[in-house]
Amino acid sequence: MRTFILYALLGWAAIIVQAAAIGPLVQSPYKPDIPFVLLIFVSLALPTRIGLPLAIIFGYFVGVFSGSIATLWVLVYVACFGLTKPFTSRFSYESISFRAVFPFVFTLIKTCLLYLGGNIFSIETGPASWLFTGAVVEGLFNSTAAFALFPGLDLLQGRPSSLEA
Amino acid sequence: MFSWVRRYQKPFLGFLLLIVALQLFAWDLKEGGFWNVPSRLFVTVSSFPIKAVNSGIQKVKYVGKWMRLMGELIKENEDLTKEVLALKAEKRELEGVNRENARLRSLLNFQERRPLSTILARVIAEEPTNIFKTILIDKGKKDRLDKGMAVVTAGGVVGQIIRVSSTTSQVLLITDNNSSIDVLIERSRAKGILTGWRGEVCQIKFLGRTEDVTVGDSVITSGLGGVFPKGLDVGKVKEIDKKGWGVFQGAYVYPSIDFGKLEEVLVVLE
Hints:
Strand content of chain B: 25-35%
Oligomer: heterodimer
CATH topology of chain A: Arp2/3 complex 21 kDa subunit ARPC3
Largest sheet of chain B: 6 strands, antiparallel, barrel
Number of strands of chain A: 0
Distance between the termini of chain A: 32 Å
Number of helices of chain A: 6
Shape of chain A: globular
Largest interface: A-B, 22 and 20 residues
Number of strands of chain B: 12
Order of helices and strands of chain A: HHHHHH
CATH class of chain A: Mainly Alpha
């Protein structure tokens, strides 16, 4: 329960930073998605019984501030959480290459799911070309953010960060 | 029954979740849906830290903007300083031109007042030693200048030409010890010979002891000697020396011209 509350608060802080700081500081149409990077870590590092409610909460937090409907985001976050799970047993999430590639790939997957969900439920998500160009840039941002955040979150988990390949 | 449920637990849960999700979507799409109340609450609670973070960010941005502005101001200040320096130089140049204009105008007035045949010359060099007092002007034999010609300005007597080359002439100033000019005390018409004495001060030699001379009297050229026209201003009596015995009294004269600031002169051709 303690871990759940801690990560829920972290998610809240992430959405506050995302809404209040990243927007004004990064003068670009493409920005890193800190709550999503946190979701990736949660899905990799925490068990499903804690991770799944956190994915719902993170999705809800983002949905409330996104201006879109919250349920779409909840579903996308939950789907991303579910899709990451099979990889945790096959790859060491502590490796540098995995950390670099994983957030990037899942940013693309998240965008695909949003695009799909948007089409299914008639929610305007913008032209596909623009959406996926943004996804590539955001993926790069997210990978960079993961490099910065994951070691700190590792320490929070109570184990030292190991960045061996 | 339970074994059936246990057997199809996962598909059943998946189906249930799908139904729940679709229902949530349906509520969500409607005005005042399922998320409405918690969303409002969440946004209200989150607004406080968001405002605080945003305020901090705005301050950081303000500082960044201020620093950028300072950089621009420093650059602008440098540019303006350069411009001010350039304008000052230009102003100095214009002032110089104005002064030159005034000097030339006074020389022209002098020429009009005194119908002498003169030629304008510029001072191009001064005596490099401290012993003699000469200047070099930019006119010479080519301009019909000759040795012994008088050199004057609107302010008074400068000296006479002692050496002439084809394009320049050397002028012996009245403050030089080798210079001798026949002069008059304007008020009393007392005569004497003006020579250089010390520094920028001249002395009048052979001034009779009984002659009426007082400090401040104007000294002018007498016209004798055939070099300087009569009545040109030479200077003012600064001091009179009647000490000792003899038939003469000493009189010291401040020239009417500041020789250190001579730039243009008139050479009297006749």
